[in-house]
Amino acid sequence: MRSTIQQRFMLHAMRVASVLVAGLALPVLPALAADDRAQLALGKKLFLQGVVPSCAVCHTLQAAGAEGAVGPVLDELKPDAARVAKALRNGLGQMPSYKDKLTDAEIEALSLYVSKASGGAK
After folding, report:
1. Does the keyword Electron transport apply (predicted)?
2. 10 Å Cβ neighbour count for 48?
């Protein structure tokens, strides 16, 4: 069994370690937030006018101000990013594939935007 002094030392060491780790992580958080904002801005741009036909022509997505009448209403469907990326790469129903029109980075940005804007992001 550990003595009270050892227990106090261990507790103090754990507190110091957690403060140090938190302090090291804090400078990274604004950079992550800025990257996320840039991805979302690119995703919205691509949704509205990035490819032909644009997503907004067919899909309704309130956050983008889109009122398409052909494809599903994304606000109701609430797809996650993986589902959006799969549809973009492979096509789905009447929706064509965009794998030859968008880079992987653009597909990621567009998928992130649609999933967050529709409420499907987890």
Report:
1. yes
2. 15
